[in-house]
Amino acid sequence: MKNIVTAAVLGTALSVSAPLIADEKANEAVSMAQIMELIKSQQREINALKKQLAETNKQVVISEQKIEATAVTVESVATASENYEKMAAWADKTHIGGYAELHYNDKKGSDNQVDAHRFVLFIEHEFTDNVRFFSEVELEHSIAGDGQTGEVELEQAYIEWDYAKNHSATFGQFLIPIGLINETHEPDTFYGVERNSVEKNIIPATWWEAGIMLGGEIAPGFSYDLAMTSGLETPTSGKNAYLPRSGRQKVGNATAENFAYTGRLKYTAIPGLELAATLMYQDDIAQGMGGDDASALLWEAHGVYQTGDFSLRALYAMWDIDGDDAKALGRDEQDGWYIEPSYKLTPRLGFFARYSEWDNNAGDNVNTEVEEWDLGLNFWLVENVVFKADWADQKNGEDSFNLGIGWSF
Predict the structure, then answer these.
(1) What is the average per-residue pLDDT within 334-341?
(2) Do residues 192 and 175 touch, judged by C-beta distance below 8 A?
(3) Sequence-distant (≥ 6) Cβ neighbours of residue 16 within 8 angstroms
(4) Region 122-144 average pLDDT
(5) What distance lies between CA 366 and its chain's CA centroid?
(6) pTM score, whole prediction
């Protein structure tokens, strides 16, 4: 009986535990499937995150490249802006200008000519408020070179330094402070197609040298110039012996055995009036090339008066040259003068008359004086563009009819 009961109990237990074991196996299977699905889901999320991270890294790289490119661009723009500012600053302190003249000359006894007489460019640069540079380059008669009629010339190249209030020093190559047209000779600033004969043959304009010059204002309207420069070297024989114009060396390998010393006083305190006097001395105008020393003294004085539309200009110049050779040629004295009234009928149209006398052989007893009448007009198309016409009547010389156009900027 006991065995029967035991068997019954075991049978009941087995019948009850069998379903439970089956349920546990089913649950285990379900849990594994869920875990696998969860793992796969997480893997997909990981893959998605990796892809997203890769895209993010790519965008970061692109952004870094863009930032770098932007930085380069900004740097380039900054550099360009800096260079532009430097160029703009240079341009603000640098000025370019010039002038030109074209002439037609109908001379009695000579062939008629058309001549691109002058083409000039100048550059000015301001280093600081009190240090400046000036230059002027000129082409004469259109074409230069071997066998050609023209030449290229450096007329000015100098530094100007304002070393004190109303006082300056000039170093380099500059125009001699003398006469009316030597320093101011743009075609729209004077009457007549050609520059006047007295300043051309006696002074002689245009005349430049190299050296140092001090200038300034002594009192309101009263100024001075003092210069020590290279000088003339005139021939001592031949037709051009001791002629000042033939002695211009133009600072081209110029002989500098003897310097020249120049002083000028100018008065401009009264509106419309200019009075000036210049004295130049050179110990030997032939630079030691002659038989004896030929010390030379040049005097020049001029006046300008303008009231309304009327203007009057007058000038006198004289050379006194020592030495027996110059005296034997009658060229120990050379002088000239002119007077020029003018009147503007309108702001654009003006008429002038000029009477001139000059003699490069005034030291002899022969009448070698040249007299000249000039009559003509200027018509200013605009302020700095002028058309000119004049008639020149010379005694003991050439008569001529002249036309010209000139401009400056």
Answers:
(1) 98
(2) no
(3) none
(4) 97
(5) 48
(6) 0.79
